[in-house]
């Protein structure tokens, strides 16, 4: 698994721009300390995580670190490389039979593709192969949706707890109206909580939801390609037909990597 440098760079850039605006282009770095308020962080972060345990089971909530890790990683799902492997297998199966594929199983790195090929080698009926593999894709997609829902819960409640923190700060401020010198600092602290909620939601969790959704869609597409290729191999389709069938899932630009004459849109 490789690190998704785009995601990491995006978060770094967002934080950099906010910090730069706060500290006047880093000319006054001490201003950043004025935006650090532990009680406000406690309300926003603590309250947001509390809602996760209310909305989800404890076992589901424990998956948050894994979900975040997915957002910062690029999977080993390369559609083009998987298609090449399937075409090679289609050629060998056409010439030497399905059982000959057993010799080349070490070339299959993706566990899902390996499982599908093994089912074919074992003589499993096509309908059952499709059912097994599609069921696995459905379960995978459900896990991705659950992870996205976990992050979505944070997107929903972080701004709400920011507002709660602001109300708490305003109550404390109004309780000290007899001391005008405390009004300005108290108002600043009250607003910082809303700031924290907005940053958590708009810089971190909402973009992460989109990130996870895109990666899930890619994984579903790649596994759909794999299923069609595996079933074509089982049916003994011509390797050229297998190639054309699987290439149809790819953007026109990616199809050119197979040496075809497809034109980009």
Structural class: mainly alpha
Contiguous runs where pLDDT drops below 50 for at least 5 residues: 260-265
Give the SSE order as H and E letters.
EHHHHEHHHHHH
Straight-line distance between termini: 31 Å
How would you sum up this structure, described in words?
This protein is mainly α and 265 residues long. Helices cover 72% and strands 2% of the residues. It has ten helices and two strands. The radius of gyration is 26 Å and the shape is elongated.
How is this fold's topology laid out?
Blueprint: E1 2-3, H1 5-22, H2 38-55, H3 58-61, H4 64-71, E2 73-74, H5 79-96, H6 111-121, H7 126-174, H8 183-235, H9 239-247, H10 252-255
Antiparallel strand pairs: 1-2
Helix pairs in contact: 2-7, 2-8, 4-8, 5-8, 5-9, 6-8, 7-8, 8-9
List its traits:
two-stranded antiparallel ribbon, disordered C terminus, 2 strands
Write a brief caption for the model.
By secondary structure, the chain is mainly alpha-helical.
């Amino acid at each position: 698994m490789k690190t998704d440098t785009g995601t990491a760079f995006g978060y770094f850039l967002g934080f950099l721009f906010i910090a730069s605006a706060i500290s006047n282009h880093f000319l006054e770095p001490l201003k950043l300390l004025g935006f650090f308020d532990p009680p406000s962080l406690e309300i926003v972060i603590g309250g947001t995580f509390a809602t996760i345990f209310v909305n989800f089971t404890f076992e589901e909530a424990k998956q948050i670190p894994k979900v975040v890790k997915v957002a910062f990683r690029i999977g080993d799902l390369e559609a083009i490389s998987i298609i090449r492997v399937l075409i090679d297998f289609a050629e060998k199966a056409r010439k030497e039979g399905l059982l000959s594929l057993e010799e080349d199983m070490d070339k299959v790195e993706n566990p899902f593709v390996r499982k599908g090929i093994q089912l074919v080698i074992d003589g499993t009926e096509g309908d059952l192969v499709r059912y097994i593999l599609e069921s696995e894709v459905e379960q995978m997609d459900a896990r991705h949706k659950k992870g996205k829902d976990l992050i979505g819960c944070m997107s929903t409640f972080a701004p709400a707890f920011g507002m709660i923190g602001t109300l708490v700060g305003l109550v404390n401020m109004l309780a000290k109206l007899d001391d005008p010198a405390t009004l300005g600092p108290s108002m600043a602290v009250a607003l910082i909580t809303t700031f924290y909620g907005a940053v958590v939601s708009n810089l971190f969790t909402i973009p992460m939801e989109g990130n996870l959704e895109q990666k899930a869609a890619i994984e579903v597409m790649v596994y759909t390609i794999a299923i069609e290729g595996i079933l074509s191999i089982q049916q003994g389709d011509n390797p050229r037909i297998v190639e054309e069938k699987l290439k149809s899932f790819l953007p026109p630009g990616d199809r050119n990597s197979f040496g075809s004459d497809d034109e980009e849109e």
